[in-house]
Amino acid sequence: MPDLILTKGYQPTLNLRETERAIKFIKDFFQDRLATALNLQRVSAPLFLRKGCGINDDLNGVETKATFRIKDDGLSEAECLFSLAKWKRMVLADYGFGPGEGLYTDMNAIRPDEECLDNLHSVYVDQWDWERVIDERDRSLTFLKGIVRSIYAVFRMMERAVHDRYPQIVPMLPEEIAFVHAEELLQRWPDVGPRERENRIAKERGAVFVIGIGGELPDGTIHDGRAPDYDDWITPTVNGCKGLNGDILLWYPLLNRAFEISSMGIRVNADSLQQQLRVRGALARCELTWHKRLLAGELPLSIGGGIGQSRLCMFFLRKLHIGEVHASVWPQWVIDRCREAGITLL
Prior knowledge:
It is globular, with a radius of gyration of 20 Å. Strands 1-5-6-11-10-9-8-7 form an eight-stranded mixed sheet, sandwiched between helices. With 346 residues, the chain is an alpha+beta fold. β9 (245-252) and β10 form a beta hairpin. It has helices at 16-38, 85-94, 141-165, 182-188, 194-205, 270-279, 289-295, 309-316, 332-340, and strands spanning 40-42, 48-50, 67-70, 76-80, 102-110, 124-133, 178-181, 207-211, 245-252, 257-266, 302-308. The longest helix is centred in the middle third of the chain and has 25 residues, at 141-165.
């Protein structure tokens, strides 16, 4: 049973109706500023995809997708989204987006195999998925850091806007976001696991982008799982490190832990796709439609990621549980413990 953090004496800053109004304000404000900062156009996204098309995200490759049959389509099977990581890149090509242009969309997913229904995790996942066309020269750590800084600037803008509307919510983000490679974290704290390394660096820096998620570290482990066919975690960068992707982590005092709010990266090209599929023993995916299109040069080079909508609201409204900002299904023990602690789940 996952541990819930139930801070003694916790009192929500806003009541239920104020919270609902604040959620709308945050979502409207943030997506508009993000679109301006990264030159993104909103597009419509599916809730599910045809099973076996190779477009849905596979996360770590072991999670079960929620599936159903379509009666009027010969009982063909469809599967609910995990994410739109590959779908977005296909849309960039099919809609004719050019270098420096991109898209964002509302992604709603169901992850029934979520094992850790704690303060931050839910079976229901909502995020802004975004993707932008880049040139070959942009496939660099320098370019990636520039995009991260642009997104972080929107976070800071959002925090100030929330404070202006709700003065009792005091800004706490540092002026700048720090950058560190997962290999550096391993070197600093070899005797603890990846989650504790994240906690330590986030507490130290306030906001940090951890680079190199998914590739093998010097001790033979990986910092965290990543599918082999969207983020590039194998391309060498500097000082022998690998990876053109990462996670944005914020320090969250209410939970006394690192708070992952975004996963993003420069996407695989044909070469890194084949390398990563080989490492994961998944070269058979090269026969799937999406993978064939990438290997044939039909999909543009891109950078993209996801930004958790409910997590963003939770952080900026200083909530203790993600169920305070989105409606989901919870085990009875979660409902009971939250009720005892004064936490109202939507």
